[in-house]
Design a protein that fits this description.
196 residues; alpha/beta; seven-stranded mixed β-sheet; 7 strands; 40% helix
Length: 196
């Protein structure tokens, strides 16, 4: 099984209503307003107790001020527990210096295809849900279905990168939360049992 592209039309599950979700965002920043330049893509999603990921929104724009767009989307979807942002040179430092957002830098550690694999498995296991209707959805899904991970591939993959970062952020953050909960339970059991 080749989990790239991260989704096929058959793999994309749809949802209608959000539950009470822990919200996260991920950003693939680009600083340019040129029509042929990359886009800044911000994906907002939530996770439920069963570790299902619900995509709520994708903002995609060509802007010379991605920090303003990031702040706007954070405020729109607040509370947001963490924002993954691609470590793209001075961009993240500029944004960090201008805001108090809960930014979590992500450094690309492999090629795009390899980075997409863990989140592609989430799609294959039907753990990622898209809304049934949204103004951004058709372009988002088209970009994902057409994603090859190849260098210099035609088109853009900014939404794919942001979605992959969202999956990585949620996975990492949820693992930390489960670890803290397990530690709390162990320490509570020990203290009630008189064990040190």
């Amino acid at each position: 099984i080749c989990p790239c592209p991260p989704a096929t039309e058959a793999d994309i599950a749809h949802w209608a209503d959000t539950q009470r979700l822990r919200r996260y965002q991920a950003v693939d920043p680009a600083i340019s307003e040129k029509t042929r330049a990359d886009y800044t893509a911000i994906v907002t999603g939530g996770v439920d107790d069963a570790q299902n990921i619900y995509l709520m929104w994708c903002e995609r724009s060509q802007t010379a001020q991605p920090g303003n767009v990031i702040v706007r989307e954070y405020e729109r979807w607040s509370p947001v527990y963490a924002i993954a942002i691609e470590q793209a040179g001075w961009q993240i430092n500029q944004i960090r210096n201008q805001t108090l957002l809960p930014l979590k830098p992500i450094t690309p550690d492999a090629d795009k295809r390899t980075r997409a694999l863990p989140h592609a498995i989430n799609y294959e296991n039907h753990k990622v849900y898209h809304p049934k209707r949204a103004s951004w959805l058709a372009a988002f899904e088209r970009e994902h279905v057409g994603f090859t991970g190849a260098r210099n591939a035609p088109g853009h993959d900014d939404q794919v990168d942001a979605n992959v970062y969202l999956g990585k952020l949620i996975s990492t953050h949820q693992r930390k939360l489960r670890g803290r909960a397990a530690h709390f339970i162990r320490s509570t059991v020990r203290s009630t049992a008189g064990i040190r």
